[in-house]
Amino acid sequence: MAALWRGCGRLLARRPWAAQALTAGALMGAGDVIAQQLVERRGLHGHHVPRTLKMMAIGFCFVGPVVGGWYKILDQLIPGTTKVVAVKKMFLDQGGFAPCFLGCFLAITGAMNGLSAAENWSKIQQDYTDALLTNYCIWPPVQIANFYFVPLKHRLAVVQCVAIVWNCYLSWKANRM
Fold first, then answer.
1. Region of residue 116 (phi > 0: left; psi between -120 and 50: alpha; otherwise: beta)
2. How far apart are the C-alpha atoms of 74 and 8, rounded to whole Å?
3. Which of 68, 93, 134, 175 could form a disulfide with 20 if both were Cys (CB 3.0 to 4.6 A apart)?
4. Are 104 and 62 in contact (CB under 8 A)?
């Protein structure tokens, strides 16, 4: 386990974007597996593998790069790690970034699920407010701790570990037809 952790640390140091994308993709996939097996109770034979692969692709191509890039921008906009700075970052993250990110996530998921533009818009209207309110119940305290205690290069990994439960919720919400 220690060797695996060191290897991840080396990858993060050499290729931070790749490490963040891989982490996000793997954990988005894990969230979908949990959603299908524990929430939806599909069982192994009823598991929809293409859905898990789609969620992993969204993690690799969208969540990892976008959230990792956002944290860099946020650190440039509001430098420092004091408690006041952490609260400011959380407000900007949750007030500005989270609503846009969540809308994009739902739109991308709908498109990957083959919804037409009209169906996708209808699904976003149906799910967005509930998902955003759920976001506000989970993420503000996590983000304050993340911005205060965690170095920039590890923030996405910390968030993605907490996000396994969030990813499970998002997968269930976004894939409910």
1. beta
2. 24
3. 68
4. yes
